[in-house]
From TrEMBL:
The keyword Protease does not apply. The chain crosses the membrane at residues 6-30. InterPro entries: Na_pump_deCOase. It comes from Oxobacter pfennigii. This is Oxaloacetate decarboxylase, gamma chain. Pfam families: OAD_gamma. It comes from the Bacteria. One of its GO terms (cellular component) is plasma membrane.
Length: 114
């Protein structure tokens, strides 16, 4: 009985080690991915700079401009890039999608009324 337990523990440790090594390899590949694909730019940065200059709207001191600045800085913080490299072209409000629980509760209330 003790031999079976030792065997099972050794299998568990070996399998956990293999999973850990694979996860570390995948994590390092994901980190290295930005270096591989950054080298294949092919002049796209020059086109982006030209588009930035032609598409710049005149900015005033409005609430919409402040909202665009906050959203741009939030996106830059998440992506880890400077805010000057990100262009927010449009901002629109989306309607919140109710959860399945809310939809179910509404249907239940409507069915009670019938």
């Amino acid at each position: 009985m003790l031999e079976k337990l030792e065997f099972l523990v050794s299998i568990i440790l070996i399998s956990m080690t293999i999973v850990s090594v694979v996860l570390i390899l995948l994590s390092s590949l994901i980190r290295m991915q930005k270096y591989f694909f950054k080298s294949f730019d092919y002049g796209a940065s020059e086109k982006k700079n030209e588009e930035k200059d032609t598409n710049k709207p005149a900015l005033g001191n409005t609430k919409e401009d402040e909202l665009a600045a906050v959203i741009t800085s939030a996106i830059a913080a998440v992506l880890g890039e400077p805010a000057s490299s990100i262009v927010v072209k449009s901002i629109r409000q989306v309607q919140p999608i109710p959860s399945a629980w809310i939809v179910s509760a509404r249907q239940e209330q409507v069915s009670r009324l019938r």
